[in-house]
Design goal:
38% helix, twelve-stranded mixed beta sheet, elongated, 592 residues, 3 domains, 22 helices, alpha/beta
């Protein structure tokens, strides 16, 4: 293997510690226009370290995080004090130097300045083995650009894509020949975050991630995405089609168009056509897919035939026991003092139909609320009280409904992979459902010692679900509690979370610090960048390269899931819309 690229070497000119206990190395290269083009942020360099022997060099590996040209004939001090006429003439002359030094440097004034950070790895001259290393580079030593083959080996250290549980997550951002691999189980079980401003492509990345993770994940893996904006039916349509157990679950019957329920009640051709057309009209399509929206008619027809649209209707319970079970009475820490009172209610009403005892039960709960002392007992009672007050008759067909226990059974099924998209017309209902589902599946796994299959709960617009106290609204407190439970304790039982948002500063700090893997794009607000830098202990300077990112470009940093641990590096991911367009070609035969 060739260690180094056929490019001129630079010199290590400065080493300074940064605020995170690492060091920034400044490396100067003689300027040529060709080299300025060839050095990219994200490239790896190697410079001799103080571990070297007299007859054998030891190299420490560094990553370029910033590069810029500097011409020493026009210094910053001159700009402040110099005569304007002289300065403008000097600048015109300097501009010619940028072009005249194309392949060879013949002047010491222009330089390429690179700032680099350690990747905590090193190797001995003549050996291909790369080991963990924290040595400093030697001042004045030559720093050489590593070959692309060697870079790929470093980026994917310890990963073999021929093994299970490994997938290619993307390519190195500036070189599509360097593939970036990731450990699926570590990504899902140890949580991940996606942070980027509007237009960065968060939804696109989530779609790409889910596709790759389901394709290469262990048997039975499930992805549950809480889709508060209702944008993933189109972006994940190929996966809904591919994995038969997948479902779109609406929280409340108003989430979906009524024609879907009419089709479920009477499965004739006219009802099927009407429901599919209504879905086309109400589905949110990304711009590129919007132009091809008519082709979604056929997969939508297939989804309706499979009846993947299910409704969880709050207030529909067969008896009082089920209602209290949904409220979390068996999962919350209720004091011994308050348990007898709750048990007494269940003893009286437990197996009775709610419709038969609604008013009587409401009266008992109202009296009991004044007696119980713990917050958790009050939460259970208030939840039941609210559900009873809001309970209404429903005429949904049986095969359109899904319950929490049934959904938990499906998620715990080790045989089939699946995708579950959770939507609602009511954001607060969606937040409450987060609590019901996560507390039920966590307690079921804890009590029965279930650790498989892997289930990842992804929260798009996560600031709605896990806000800090000052940003709370509606029922976000109970969704925050539920997600914190998964973030802190879920990994032990194969339950992970993914959080995606454009406003990091709104997120609860306790949960923000839990993910072990981050995907970061443009974050124009300083407060958001500071929060990410603090959570992952990385320098804010690292974010500067993200300002030049296009769609699909992300700064990836992980403690466990990548070969390069705890070091940010830029990647480029596939465009999910291209994947969906390819999927739609399956239905071209139906077009007239």
């Amino acid at each position: 293997m060739e260690y180094f690229r056929d490019e001129p070497a630079g010199l290590v000119m400065k080493i300074e510690p940064n605020e995170n206990g690492k060091f920034i190395t400044e490396i100067w290269f003689d300027y040529t226009l060709k080299l300025m083009k060839n050095i990219k942020e994200g490239d790896f360099l190697a410079a001799p370290s103080f571990k070297s022997e007299r007859d054998k060099k030891h190299y420490v590996i560094l990553q370029v995080v910033k590069k810029f040209p500097r011409h020493f004939a026009l210094k910053e001090d001159n700009l402040k004090k110099g005569y304007p006429g002289f300065l403008t003439e000097a600048a015109r002359n300097i501009s010619q130097d940028w072009f005249s030094h194309y392949e060879e440097s013949h002047d010491d004034n222009p330089k390429i300045i690179c700032e680099a950070i350690p990747v905590n790895m090193g190797f001995w001259e003549g050996e291909e083995k790369v080991e963990e290393d924290y040595e400093l580079p030697m001042l004045g030593a030559e720093a050489k650009l590593l070959s692309y083959e060697f870079m790929q080996k470093i980026l994917n250290k310890g990963l073999d894509e021929n093994e299970d549980n490994i997938t290619e997550i993307g390519k190195l951002q500036h070189n599509n020949k360097i593939r970036v691999l990731i450990r699926i189980e570590d990504l899902l079980r140890l949580h991940f975050g996606i942070f980027g401003f509007t237009g960065a492509g968060k939804s696109n990345l989530i779609s790409t991630l889910i596709s790759k993770l389901l394709e290469n994940s262990p048997k039975g893996t499930k992805i549950v995405i809480f889709d508060i904006m209702g944008e993933y039916l189109a972006l994940l349509s190929d996966l809904l089609y591919k994995y038969p157990s997948s479902k779109i679950i609406g929280i409340g019957s108003k989430t979906f168009v009524e024609s879907i329920y009419k089709y479920y009640q009477n499965e004739n051709r006219d009802n099927l056509k009407k429901a599919a057309i209504d879905l086309l009209k109400t589905t949110l399509f990304p711009k590129k897919l919007f132009l091809k929206r008519k082709y979604f008619y056929y997969p939508f027809v297939e989804f309706l035939k499979r009846k993947i649209f299910k409704v969880y209707e709050e207030g529909i319970f067969s008896n009082v026991n089920k209602l209290f079970e949904e409220a979390g009475i068996n999962r919350l820490n209720i004091s011994q003092k308050d348990k007898p009172a709750l048990d007494e209610i269940l003893k009286i009403f437990g197996n009775k139909k709610i419709s038969d005892v609604k008013d009587e039960l409401l009266k008992e709960i109202k009296n009991l609320l004044a007696q119980v002392s713990t917050t958790n007992a009050q939460k259970v009672l208030k939840y039941v009280q609210k559900k009873l007050e809001n309970m209404r008759e429903t005429f949904l067909p049986e095969d359109a409904l899904i319950s929490i226990p049934r959904l938990v059974e499906e998620l715990n099924n080790e045989e089939e992979k699946g995708l579950y998209i959770i939507q609602s017309h009511d954001p607060d209902a969606l937040k409450r459902f987060v609590f019901y589902l996560s507390s039920n599946i966590y307690e079921r796994r804890r009590q029965e010692g279930i650790i498989k299959p892997l289930v990842s709960f992804i929260f798009d617009e996560a600031d709605e679900f896990i806000p800090q106290d000052k940003y709370k609204k509606g029922d976000s407190e109970i969704s925050r509690q539920a997600i914190e439970l998964l973030a802190r304790r879920g990994r032990k039982f194969g339950l992970g979370i993914g959080i995606a948002t454009q406003r990091v500063v709104y997120l609860d700090t306790n949960i923000m610090s839990q993910p072990h893997t981050y995907f970061i794009s443009k974050l124009p607000r300083v407060s958001d960048r500071e929060r990410v830098a603090e959570a992952f202990a990385i320098s804010e300077d690292i974010f500067e390269q993200t300002f030049k990112f296009g769609k699909g470009d992300w700064l990836l940093v992980s403690h466990d899931a990548t070969g390069l641990e705890s070091v940010p590096f830029p990647i480029h991911t596939e465009n999910a819309e291209e994947r969906i367009l390819e999927f739609l070609k399956l239905f071209l035969k139906y077009q007239s």
